[in-house]
Amino acid sequence: MKKKVCVIGAGPSGITAAKNLLDEGHTVQVYDYGHEVGGNWVFSDKPSHSSVFETTHIISSKTLSQYDDFPLPDDYPDYPSHQQLAAYFQNYARHFGLYPHIQFNILVKKCELAPDGSWMVTTERDGVSTTERFDALAVCNGHHWKPRYPEYPGTFSGKLMHSHDVKRFSDFAGKRVLVIGGGNSACDVAVESCRVSALTEISWRRGYWIVPKFIMGKPSDTVGGLLRFVPNWLWRKITSQMIKTIQGNNSAYGLPEPEDDFGFHHPTVNSELFYFMRHGKIKPRPDIDHYEGNTVVFKDGSKQEYDVVVACTGYYISHPFFDTSLINYSEGEVPLYLKMLHPTIQNIYFIGLFQPLGCIWPGAELQSKIMARELSGQWKRPSNTNKLAIDEVRHPDFQQIKTPRHTITVNYHAFRKRLLKELPPDYIRKLSVVPVGRKD
After folding, report:
1. What's this model's pTM, rounded to 2 decimal places?
2. Helices 361-375 and 412-420 meet at what angle, rounded to 10?
3. 383 in the Ramachandran plot: left (φ > 0), alpha (ψ -120 to 50) or beta?
4. What are the E-state strand segments in 299-381?
5. How does DSSP assign 129-152, residue by residue?
6. What pLDDT shows up at residue 437?
7. For residue 186, which phi and psi values (nearest 5 degrees)?
8. CA distances from 185 to 182, 391, 436 (A)
9. CA distance 72 to 119
10. Across-strand partners of 213?
11. Which has the closest alpha carbon to 21: 398, 391, 395, 378?
12. Is the pLDDT assigned to residue 434 strictly greater than 70?
């Protein structure tokens, strides 16, 4: 039952996929376009490289952002920096002996199903293409790398860029900056740019829930986790009231109110946006109506000239190595059982293709364990996988607004519980064991 498996990507999801496949004795080959383990968490100021900002810290807290098999170091802060997380992922890869199984600086060009059901994977390095056969495919290329731009009438004559291409905030020194969006990247860009810019403004088309990083001295996600046993509707009500009590209403900052209770869209975790707004460093703006040269005209008729417009408007889910007639999740629903199992193709696994209200890689680790056990014949998927995948789409953890950003949302604790149910009790008990040699 041992298989030859191709893992696409050596980011947080890819390395845990490789680790757990190796644990089950499978032959593993990991391909990664970058030069080091860590995916987006490996900072680079090259425009084409998909990476975090120079100042990025994680927005989920330490205790909910670690692999069960490899806890974060005790001396890491509640919200580790990108440098600390990159080191963590690279230590994980070293500790579990993954580097010999990873090929860097290599692009996966094409993945095709052969007549016998195996996968023919074509890669390219330095202009040279190679094709190799695999029994199974673990897709771990992430979903935060292909930018999605908004469309407005007119043309902006200044610099229009996506948050994907923001690297160093010194680039905004002395500039007039407009940030589009209210998600985590948008608020981070607004906060960091306002420290050096001549002007920073932020445009929202709808209201967002802004969550502080700490509540009562504790990381906000751990406080929210204390309510995970109450019904979802009640959890949303309680959380909404708690945030309003702490932060006040959005209207107090000149921003639109959320359209519904907490959870109707992906929340934004930021403790500095409101602070800088009330200090006059960030000005709120409504949705954009159109561009006129370097002037942006807003829906309320106001206008302002800018040097830079930063669109923090999300990403497409993209798997360019598949023929779109076979697999295409760039638009619409993503019907995968447990957010990983294809309804009809049984030897492909999507690891980390979900967006929790929390951290991705703890769930990706559990998905990887299920994948590895199925390939070893120790776990069997339900016969009605197609129906279950559709049921997941129709009955999500949260009823959210219909936008591309919300097609793969899960509740961190509920999703983790569903994944753990697929693993045997003795297997689960091993998850709390700290590996020998943790400090390497």
Report:
1. 0.93
2. 20
3. alpha
4. 303-305, 308-311, 315-316, 348-350, 355-356
5. EEEEEESEEEE---SSSEE-----
6. 35
7. -60, -45
8. 8, 31, 37
9. 35
10. none
11. 378
12. no
